From TrEMBL:
Alphabetical keyword list: Cell membrane, Membrane, Transmembrane, Transmembrane helix, Transport
Annotated CDD domains: TM_PBP2
Domain of life: Bacteria
Upper taxonomic lineage: Bacteria, Bacillati, Actinomycetota, Actinomycetes, Kitasatosporales
The family this protein is said to belong to: Belongs to the binding-protein-dependent transport system permease family.
PANTHER family: DIPEPTIDE TRANSPORT SYSTEM PERMEASE PROTEIN DPPB-RELATED
Location in the cell: Cell membrane
Name of the molecule in the record: ABC transporter permease
Transmembrane domains' residue ranges: 35-57, 130-151, 172-193, 199-221, 256-277, 307-328
UniProt source species: Streptomyces kaempferi
Entries under Pfam families matching the protein: BPD_transp_1, BPD_transp_1_N
Length: 336
């Protein structure tokens, strides 16, 4: 071993140039850069959502007219408008709104006369509980249905599953909710039609909210699995004598999961946002029902906060889904 080779750093180039970083270090730098870019984009999206919601809700009318009786005088309206801070210039209200966002200070609700943060904290657990239950129903039904349909491609059982899936995807959720209430609550008296607090109250809203997501995930998983099952490494696994189910579960499902994870992530955001109609049908006391009430009362701070909450949910879920690609598919990690 020469003297030059002893002094040379472990990763120096053969031509004497600066040392090259290890592959693992380069991947870490790429991942960090991707995370920073995504975070910057997420903050920009949230700023746009906050700005649009701030100005759009003010086009709906004057909330003072709804808070006061019809025979209120102009002086009473002016006093209430001043106490709510609505008499200040619009740009000043906008700056104050943006200034409070980093501290999660959305102001006071005009209708409940409480901090918006407190009102949201009271309603958010119910919505999260409903969305989590709907997600569990989605995964429990959609994944086996997608695998079964892919393995039985072209057969009557495949067409039967896809017909049910298409029917679920084309049916409006509120109509599904009303139908479930008529059958299981009014007809069979097996489950409550509305309310909150027990597992029985959760069943019908969760199924209603999950119907559309089940259809989307099952269809995508079926088509993705069919593409993967025709690839060379699957034929190699079959040639080794593996059974059809083992080939799908051990070799096909992971490769087919990349687009499915994307859709499942988007469906998580849709479950939270789509809970508005479901909560209204079943009188579920969540953020969705609160949003309807806030819009009807022209409660500007509460509407702005709920819109930002839904936007932040989509942004965070998309960010997590994007980052999960690196762990599911090494080709994505090396291409960044």
């Amino acid at each position: 071993m020469t003297e030059l080779s002893l002094r040379q750093p472990p990763h120096a180039t053969h031509d004497g140039g600066p040392p090259r970083p290890r592959t693992r270090d380069r991947d870490a730098v790429r991942l960090l850069r991707t995370v920073l870019v995504r975070l910057g984009t997420a903050l920009l999206v949230l700023l746009c959502a906050a700005t649009v919601s701030f100005f759009l809700v003010r086009l709906s009318g004057d909330p003072v007219k709804l808070l006061l009786p019809p025979d209120a005088t102009a002086q009473q309206e002016a006093v209430l408008r001043g106490s709510l801070g609505l008499d200040r210039p619009l740009f000043t209200q906008y700056v104050d709104f943006l200034w409070g966002l980093p501290r999660l200070d959305f102001g006071n609700s005009l209708f409940y006369n409480e901090p918006v943060r407190t009102v949201l904290a009271d309603r958010l657990p119910a919505t999260l509980q409903l969305a989590a239950a709907a997600l569990v129903v989605t995964l429990v039904i959609a994944i086996p249905a997608g695998i079964f349909a892919a393995m039985r491609r072209g057969r009557p059982s495949d067409r039967g599953v896809m017909t049910m899936v298409l029917l679920g995807q084309s049916t409006p959720p509120f109509w599904v909710g009303i139908l479930l209430i008529l059958v299981f609550a009014v007809g069979l008296h097996a489950l409550p039609a509305s309310g909150y607090g027990t597992f029985a109250h959760l069943v019908l809203p969760a199924i209603t909210l999950a119907v559309y997501s089940v259809a989307v995930v099952a269809r995508l998983l079926r088509s993705s699995l069919i593409d993967v099952l025709s690839s060379d490494h699957i034929r190699t696994a079959r040639a080794k004598g593996f059974g059809p189910l083992k080939v799908v579960l051990t070799h096909g499902l992971r490769n087919a999961s990349l687009p499915v994870v994307t859709v499942v992530g988007l469906e998580v955001g849709s479950l939270l946002g789509g809970a508005i109609l479901t909560e209204q049908v079943f009188s579920w006391p969540g953020v969705g029902q609160l949003t309807i009430e806030a819009i009807s009362h022209r409660d500007f701070p509460l509407v702005q906060a709920t819109v930002l909450l839904f936007a932040a949910t989509f942004v965070v879920v998309n960010l997590l889904v994007d980052l999960s690609y690196s762990f599911l598919d090494p080709r994505v990690r090396t291409s960044r």
